[in-house]
Design a protein that fits this description.
Distance between the termini: 12 Å
Helix content: 25-40%
CATH class of the largest domain: Alpha Beta
Oligomer: single chain
Strand content: 25-35%
Structural class: alpha/beta
CATH superfamily of the largest domain: Medium-chain alcohol dehydrogenases, catalytic domain
Mean pLDDT: 97
CATH topology of the largest domain: Quinone Oxidoreductase, Chain A, domain 1
Number of strands: 15
């Protein structure tokens, strides 16, 4: 088969590699499309190696055919390829009414958002959520999911993206380069930035608020004022998805299938795809994501 390999950090090469061999309990997917995630950029740069046992090929989600049926799947790696082996429990049906290309943009965002907003933060109707990076693949999905839960949605993004995010359901869009988000009084903050936002995120929390950190674009080390945390009776949590055991991912995927997939089937949530590239042009797709000009997901077409 053909796949993207990384012979040296920063270099993406489309070439022939051995076909994957499914292990017991795995299925083989003939890949139609994949999608680009920030973790892929980090891996290609040499900063985020795949977990033990995962393929060296980038790609954390895909869509395609398994035994002739249209499916999509959450992966630990290997999505930038014509075929991938994946635990059967991590395979999802394509939501009704969506194309395979649209479905490729769903598993990573849906599992990340559901696991953090519902399983960790317990976001409820009537609460306020602050979502950083609203124009990202995670952000565009989180805005729609939070809105579907009945939450009030505040998001940060560049001004050029505000109209699109309001259309997705954001109530308030803030320009993170010039506007202060630290006084919004959020019950939940979903943060992809990390260290450089920690102090302001704590200020932004309402009493009893929950801060969930899922990214470190702004660094990994910061000072936390525990007195303020105690005074607000707040929770600070940090999560990752890729390195979780198969059983934990399976629980998340089952929740996504039961809770999120119906919202996709009825149109309450829709995948947001900014641009699609041939998989052989993954380097150009990575450059677009690195530029932060996109809204939603950038996908790769294998077939």
């Amino acid at each position: 088969m053909h796949a993207i390999t990384v012979p040296v950090p920063g270099e993406l090469v489309w070439g022939e590699v051995p076909d994957p061999v499914p292990a017991p309990g795995e299925v083989l997917i003939d890949v139609v499309a994949s999608a680009v995630n920030r973790a892929d950029l980090l891996q290609v740069a040499g900063h985020y190696p795949p977990p033990p046992g995962a393929p060296d090929i980038p790609g954390l989600e895909c869509s395609g055919f398994a035994d002739g049926e249209p499916v999509c799947a959450l992966l630990s790696g290997g999505g930038y390829a014509e075929r991938v082996a994946v635990p059967a429990e991590h395979v999802l049906p394509v939501p009704r009414g969506l194309t395979l290309e649209q479905a490729a943009a769903l598993p990573e965002a849906a599992c990340t958002v559901y696991s953090n907003l519902t399983m960790v933060a317990g976001l409820r109707a009537g609460e306020t959520i602050l979502i950083h990076g609203g124009g990202s693949g995670i952000g565009t999905f989180a805005i729609q999911y939070a809105r579907a839960l009945g939450a009030r949605v505040i998001t940060t993004a560049r001004p050029a993206k505000h109209a699109a995010l309001m259309e997705l359901g954001a109530d308030v869009c803030l320009d993170y380069t010039s506007e202060d988000f630290s006084k919004v009084g959020a019950d939940v903050v979903l943060d992809i930035i990390g260290a450089s936002y920690l102090d302001r995120n704590l200020s932004a929390l309402a009493t009893g608020g929950r801060l969930v950190v899922i990214g470190l674009q702004g660094g990994r080390r910061a000072e936390l004022d525990l007195a303020r945390l105690l005074a607000k009776r707040a929770l600070v949590a940090g999560t990752t998805l890729r390195s979780r055991p198969v059983e934990e991912k399976t629980r998340i995927i089952l929740g996504v299938r039961d809770t999120v997939w119906p919202l996709l089937a009825d149109g309450t949530i829709r995948p947001v795809i900014y641009q699609t590239f041939p998989m052989a042009q993954a380097a150009a797709a990575h450059a677009l994501v690195a530029s932060n000009q996109h809204v939603g997901k950038v996908t790769l077409r294998a077939a």
